[in-house]
Amino acid sequence: MSQQPITLLICALGGEGGGVLSEWLMETARACGFAAQSTSIPGVAQRTGATTYYVEVFPIPLSELGGKRPVLSLYPVPGNLDALVSSELLETTRQIGNSMSAATRTRVISASNRSFTTQERMQMSDGRTDSATLLEIVRTHSREHHVFDMGEMARTSGTIVSAVMLGAIAGSGLFPFPRSAYEATIRAGGKGTEASLRGFASGFEVLQDQLMQARQVHELLSNEELPVLLNKGLQPDLSLQFPPQVHEMLALGHARLLDYQGPTYAARYITRLQQVLHAERAADPAGAHHYAITLEMTRWLALWMAFDDIVRVADLKSRGQRWTRVKGEVKLGDDDLLQVYDHFKPGVPEFAALLPRSLAQRLTQWDRARINHGKAPWALPLKIGTHSVLGMLALRTLASFKWLRPLGSRFQIEQSLIDQWLASVIAGTRTHWQSGFELAQCGRLIKGYGSTNERGKDNLLHIMEQLATAQNFATQDERVHAIAAARSAALADDAGQALDRTLVQHGVAARPLKAQPIRWMKNPHMSKTR
């Protein structure tokens, strides 16, 4: 039997119960007759920082040591951990970056969910760290790794994530304690026992299932009989039409548009992607770029085609999954009452979007005239109790107007703009692969709603009209550089000044100025003094 202690580093964010988890482990070790020691290394605690807890357990019971007691360490030694357990994926990789995990020794158990950092949230573009990159770091720097959504398990169980982490530790077999010993420790805690046990069970079962699957795969590999079958959720007929590199994203995009508008609209999405794929295959017959243009278009085209409107908002807010999620977030008990109010403020643009173009123009002109006379844009503030029958009926009625969407002015405008972007990407791809790739990535400019969405579309159209077809570039590489620089500038500055400077630097016109009405406001203090 090993004469070295079993070493574990626990990484948790503030308020996630990391201290409770270390106490559970210590109590379980003592109850089973093993020597154990725990040390906490506090971070920013209840804000956004991380707190780590180091646990050592000597694997031989005290009763078998003949009165001797092992000497245990207070702090973890980089590369000397048997296991690292973390409640957040980026925090896992941060500890790996500190050399805590050794590829030949350390078992990593990590949550797949993220708590975005302030730096990630400040970016105008998608500032999130790519989870695929983080997962690759975990895989490369661990002897064995288990990554799953601990946050969702905790919410479903009505407990904190530390209970799920404890179950994962128990299920991994890291310590020589039976499952019943862990559960007895939880029961001794008193408040929230049943919820903690549910969370513990979910974490335990996930680890047990993953270990069993790993054993099965190992057996299959040893017998050289492992069948390669990856089910990405993509319909068989579509999987034959598109290369494997885009299957996963295509399945998500196709499902999104089926849900958004139905089979006809989803088929339109596929038809558009087929045009892109045909152009890319002509420009890159050998597939050296792994169909990167088609992959980018698969993502951004689906997001643009499923644009937000009042019908979509009503549909999402009245779904049963949303009510289940809210109950889980507030930890609703059997004897609790829950009331949920949703606030809406639809204006003229939202109502005009569902009207035919002629009626929409009249309504928009009426509202613009009001604004030009110093009045605020017309809007209808609403407070709807979605916990009530009438409130839910109102939302479901509005959601049922999905059939009206294709007849509306906004739908027609959006489809026209999408086709314009699609044609630009296809033309750029046929001329120069890299140009098509940069134009495809410009789809990330379309985001948000209201003025943010309109500004993104204006920026995209200007880049296509001024850079994609401009004749002042000596080489295609210069055009590619200009498009990439303009896209980055548009994402970096919502006011558009960086984009205008970039456009001028590349010899094309800046965006035209837009007229803005001046609103004259009365000073209430002046009227009182008179």
Give an overview in words.
This protein has 530 residues and is of the alpha/beta class. The protein folds into 4 domains: 6-222, Pyruvate-ferredoxin oxidoreductase, PFOR, domain III (Pyruvate-ferredoxin Oxidoreductase, domain 3), CATH 3.40.920; 237-301; 310-332 and 339-409, no CATH class; 420-518, no CATH class. The chain is 54% helix and 8% strand. The protein has a 6-stranded mixed sheet with strand order 2-3-1-4-5-6, with helices on both faces. A two-stranded antiparallel sheet has the order 7-8. Strand 2 (36-41) and strand 3 (50-57) form a beta hairpin.
Structural class label: alpha/beta
Total domains: 4
Distance between the termini: 94 Å
Q: Low-confidence spans: pLDDT under 50, at least 5 residues?
A: 220-232
Q: Largest beta sheet, briefly?
A: 6 strands, mixed
Helix content: 40-55%
Number of helices: 23
Find the count of extended strands (DSSP E, 2+ residues).
Answer: 8
Which CATH-level-2 architecture of the largest domain? 3-Layer(aba) Sandwich
CATH names the topology of the largest domain as Pyruvate-ferredoxin Oxidoreductase, domain 3
How are the SSEs ordered, and which strands pair?
Elements: E1 6-13, H1 18-31, E2 36-41, E3 50-57, E4 83-86, H2 89-97, E5 107-111, H3 118-122, H4 131-140, E6 144-148, H5 150-157, H6 161-172, H7 179-187, H8 193-222, H9 236-241, H10 247-260, H11 263-283, H12 292-305, H13 310-317, H14 320-329, E7 341-344, H15 348-352, H16 357-372, E8 382-385, H17 389-399, H18 409-431, H19 433-441, H20 451-468, H21 476-492, H22 497-505, H23 524-529
Parallel strand pairs: 1-4, 4-5, 5-6
Antiparallel strand pairs: 1-3, 2-3, 7-8
Helix pairs in contact: 1-6, 1-7, 2-4, 5-6, 5-8, 6-8, 10-11, 10-12, 11-12, 11-18, 12-18, 12-19, 13-17, 18-19, 18-20, 19-21, 20-21, 21-22
